[in-house]
Amino acid sequence: MDRTAQRASRPPGRTVAYEPPGTAPPLHTRAAAVLEAGWTGASTVPSRSLYPHQWSWDSAFIAIGLRHLSPLRAQTELETLLAAQWADGRIPHIVFNPSVPLDAYFPSPDFWRSSAAGRAAGAPRGVETSGIVQPPVHALAAWLVHLADPGLSRARGFLTRAYPRLAAWHDYLLHRRDLGGGGLVSVVHPWEQGMDNSPCWDRPLSRVTPAPARSFRRADLDHGLPEDRPTDLDYGRYVRLAADYRDGGYADGAGDFVVEDPAFNALLIASEYALDRIARELGAADPARPDRAERLTATLVERLWEPAAGMFLCRDVRAGEPIPERGVSGLVPLLLPALPRDLVATLVRTVCGPHFGLGGTTRLVPSYDLLGEAFDPHRYWRGPAWFNTNWLLEQGLRLHGERGRADALRKGMLHTAGASGFAEYVDPYTAQACGVTGFGWTAALTLDLLHDRPARGRNGLTALKEGDRA
């Protein structure tokens, strides 16, 4: 039997069982306790041990869950992040807490040197940040946080203050990061896309000469198993890319890694719809913005849809060609309202087919092709299932009327979150916890799933699509 056939016939293994009533505190209480433990007074760390600062897209997902506990804290979460925005519009992927020792996380503030190296790009002087970005979930999060308590939001001027910063963020991406010239945003580092060591990056990363191992110390291995984390070779390439970007004054477009990613662009499009809702709420609607979201959807389809793969693929801008790897990123555009119906149907078949196995061999969607040569069920983004991408897919399935599949995925996420101790990520076959437990966005998105109304076919994205203010 060849390798593909062996993987296709692999049994699903142990699944997560339901927690009997009364054996543990309610899931809501446990999830809330995780977020309380990570709260610093101004933002929430993803993990006290492994990620002791504020991360950009983590904070967006955390705010989406926090809105069910404290709309004020959810607003504060996003306000703290937006306060670290650079003058050119970029929202940095890390905002560093000065009270955390430098050796607690690498790359640390003294590596990024944002206030000095980023001066020409408008890095803030009062806070140290990284110089790269992460996926733009923020306008979507801001709109959902507003809906949780519109009275509080209006009284505090939350959207009034957030809107110009969010608009500047989108303008930066659309005007400064169209490095392929085709109308989509490019990422210039794997950390920007958020799925750090995905096999989708192997080909463009192969052009990057890694930094010498002696030039950095990996603090992540103090808290995680080496077999769960990126390899030293990958990490050396990440460090080289980041150092070159820093040494170039954080100017865009000069590096060896330039990739158009479907998930990054899909999240920008979803946030474009949210930004339109925010503008309408403020009486400052831009009639061009909804059209821009639909144009971006059409561009995404034109440039990144691959019919033979049954999904979207990343595009290596430097090589001028698609990257022939199936990652979960290529499924995330399912959350877009204007996606053509035939593409929606094809994506659903791909999610449930042998490459991702939802409803068959897997309870949660893996981060990478089950049949791919690089598949590893435990190593970070090379196969394990993550809660944020599964939440996005649950939203997309429900948005497009796939209620049965959305309900099953929601049920699987809730049970896996509780049984794994809110793990950072899990083995897609066995639901075994990987990475750290008590992870911020796992707990936050658990709360969001507990508070949505699946019986009525509604969730955050259907509210966005309908313009629901209630």
From TrEMBL:
Gene Ontology molecular functions: hydrolase activity, acting on glycosyl bonds
Gene3D superfamilies: 1.50.10.10
Residues annotated as domain Mannosylglycerate hydrolase MGH1-like glycoside hydrolase: 51-442
Keyword set, alphabetical order: Glycosidase, Hydrolase
Pfam families: MGH1-like_GH
Positions of the UniProt region annotated as Disordered: 1-24
Record has Hydrolase as a keyword: yes
Source species, domain of life: Bacteria
Family: Belongs to the glycosyl hydrolase 63 family.
Name under which the protein is recorded: Trehalase family glycosidase
Provenance organism: Streptomyces indiaensis
